[in-house]
Design a protein that fits this description.
about 200 residues, alpha/beta, Rossmann fold, 7-stranded mixed β-sheet, 7 strands, about 40% helix, globular
């Protein structure tokens, strides 16, 4: 079984914020497969399905971002999922919107959700799918909290809409094809790729 955890903050106050892009991907996967999230046996909502011979459980922790690791660990224990079969989906303000970076280990990079998971699992060796939410120009340290907790603009929502199927494809590729294949296929700027295709078509 594979565990895909989309991280975010619960409640309408945060529902459109950049920090909740992990929740958006879980919603997209549920919509793709006609699933409905239900309360889990802990501080998360979950849905389960099978794809390519793999059982997949999707979760949204409702612990708030800083304590995401509690729900992830408890769900892992409940379903007996080893850490190598766990994928955490998070926002990353340090990379541009439309860029995907998936890795099998690494530092939390200042992301409190990833830090919480590493703390609870006592290791940083678990897969994380970082989805870029960055803008042009450097986001200063003193403004990044307001930025990630701010709502996407309408233009950004349009770009997110274009990317959502790719985000969902990437998460499912991890579950079915494994980490290495998924890294090779998805680690890039997908919006730049789409622009290049349009430019080539116009020539």
């Amino acid at each position: 079984m594979k565990l895909i955890a989309g991280l975010g903050n619960p409640g309408t106050r945060y529902s459109r914020t950049r920090h909740n892009i992990g929740f958006f991907v879980i919603d997209a996967l549920c919509a793709r497969h006609g699933l409905k999230l239900k309360p889990g046996k802990g501080d998360w909502y979950e849905a389960e399905y099978e794809l390519g011979g793999e059982k997949i459980v999707l979760i949204k922790p409702v612990t708030y971002m800083n304590n995401s690791g509690i729900a992830v660990k408890e769900c892992m224990e409940r379903y007996e999922v080893p850490k190598e079969d766990v994928l955490a989906i998070v926002d990353d303000f340090q990379i541009p919107l439309g860029t995907i970076r998936i890795r099998g280990r690494g530092s939390d990079g200042g992301h409190n959700g990833l830090a919480s998971i590493a703390y609870e699992l006592e290791t940083d060796e678990y897969a994380r799918l970082r989805l870029g939410i960055g803008r042009e120009g450097v986001i200063r340290k003193d403004e990044y909290v307001d930025y990630v907790l701010g709502e996407f603009t309408e233009d950004e929502f349009g770009l997110i809409g274009k990317m959502m199927e790719t985000y969902a494809d990437c998460a499912e590729s991890f579950a079915v094809n494994g980490l290495t294949s998924t890294m090779n296929s998805f680690n890039k700027s997908h919006l730049d790729e789409d622009k290049d295709r349009r430019d080539t078509k116009e020539l």
